[in-house]
Known about the structure:
Order of helices and strands: HEHEHEHEHHHHHHHHEHEHE
Strand order of the largest sheet: 3-2-1-4-5-7-6
Number of helices: 14
Distance between the termini: 48 Å
Number of strands: 7
Helix content: 40-55%
Oligomer: single chain
Amino acid sequence: MEFSHKPVLFREAIEGLAVRPAGIYLDGTAGGGGHSRAVAERLTTGRLIAVDQDPDAIAVLQERLGSFPCVTIVQNNFSNMTEIAAQLQIDHLDGVLLDIGVSSRQLDTPERGFSFHADAPLDMRMSQSGPTAADLVNTLPWQSLAEIFSRYGEEKFSRSIAQAIAAARQTAPILTTEQLTEVIRSAIPAKARREGGHPSRRVFQALRIAVNGELDALSRGLDSAFELLAPGGRLAVITFHSLEDRIVKQRMAKWCEGCTCPPDFPVCVCGKKPQAVLVNRKPIEASPQELEENPRSRSAKLRVCEKLAQDH
Length: 312
């Protein structure tokens, strides 16, 4: 199976993990296997768990990583990391990599319905199971759709778009990406359509996040990953939009927070100690060369933290 995917911030993510040859690692969004292969190649007696919820990705991973005895491939959502580790009798991890969002393969496969650049069924399911984007668009009240578009897409015309969808579906169900794009276009003022990129971008992002429960999965996955990390273990997370990055930034800041006593206290009485340290104070972004080679990397941010020993 052909699975074209350029891993974003590839070198930086692998360096951030600081792979130890005998360590145990988990790639929670293995996709086309680019990051996973790089980790596997650095292992000797170690182990890699390559996880993805997309059955197409699993088929590719089996093909591309099957020759590595150190690799175990699991079809699941990375938010279920605790259960995955328990099933594999793993009690700790030395590193976790999460590359959040939709893959190039998913975007470039029209029939998956992620892209507004080609007409296709309005699907957007990463796992290829459960309710589709069409189900949401055709069944939710317009108020719920407006909330999704506003919260997950930061779409300022969320109400008018949602009301236009509700009106259009009374005539016929909205079943394709092109149908939805036409409705969105009709609901946005002409001036706004000429500015700020494709008019459907924010609505498609919002629907994708809602269909796949992405932000909830990210929040659960971060907590599970950090809980499983051994002292000295690293968590590397690549995000592609501000909603994801904000969750990662805030969670890592919480783990890295130490004493919260007022500055005029002579000694600490709260007893709070940092659980982690940031490997890079600021997020790592794509280099000019990578931006030129892979435009999809333009919004990518990589954050890495390292878990501290409990007696630190």
